Amino acid sequence: MLLDTDRKLYCAVGLGRSVSKVWNIQTLIYYAEQKAAGRTLPKKFENVEDDPHQMGGDFIIDKDGNMALIHCSTSPTDRPSVDELLKALQGLRKRSRFASTVNESSPRKRMCPDLTNNLL
C-alpha cells in the first residue's frame, strides 16, 4: 500500500480531476442500484481531506519502485478485476525469482524512485 498524501503518484501518472467523468449517468445509475439493493455507500473518512472529483487508479509497484500494473480509471466504477490484479502480482513473483539469478549490476528501470520510501 502506498500512502500518497502529497499526491505525487497521482500527478505523475496524470490522473486528473473530472466532474463529468465522476458524476456521469453510468455512475449515478450504479449508486442508485447499490442503494436500491440495500448496500451502504462509501462514507467520507474523518480527518481526511478528500477530492470527490479526483479520478482514481489502481497501481501495483514493486519494492524497487517499478510499476507492475497501471490502471487509470475512466470512471469511478472502472477498476481492474481481481484476476487482473492477481496476474500482475504473480508476474512480480516470477520476475522476483528470475531477478535473483540475474547479475545485480544489470540495469533496471525505476519508474517511481522518489515514491519507493512510502511503500508499506
Structure description:
The chain has helices spanning 8-12, 19-22, 25-36, 82-99, and strands spanning 57-61, 67-72. Residues 100-120 have low confidence and may be disordered. It has a two-stranded antiparallel ribbon. The protein has 120 residues and is α+β, with helices and mostly antiparallel strands. It is 32% helix and 9% strand. It starts with 7 loop residues before the first helix and ends in a 21-residue tail after the last helix. The chain is built from four helices and two strands; from the N terminus they run H-H-H-E-E-H.
Task: Describe this structure in a few short sentences.
It is built from four helices and two strands. The protein is of the alpha+beta class and 120 residues long. Strand 1 (57-61) and strand 2 (67-72) form a beta hairpin.
Helix/strand layout:
Elements: H1 8-12, H2 19-22, H3 25-36, E1 57-61, E2 67-72, H4 82-99
Antiparallel strand pairs: 1-2
Strand content: 5-15%
What is the radius of gyration computed over CA atoms, rounded to a whole number of angstroms?
18 Å
Oligomer: single chain
Terminal Cα span:
5 Å
Q: Mean pLDDT across all residues, rounded?
A: 77
Uncertain parts: 100-120
Would you tell me the structural class of the helices and strands? Answer: alpha+beta
Strand order of the largest sheet: 1-2
What is the β-strand count? Answer: 2
Q: Main β-sheet, in a few words?
A: 2 strands, antiparallel
- N-to-C SSE series? HHHEEH
Name the overall outline.
globular
Range of helix content: 25-40%
Please report the number of helical segments.
4
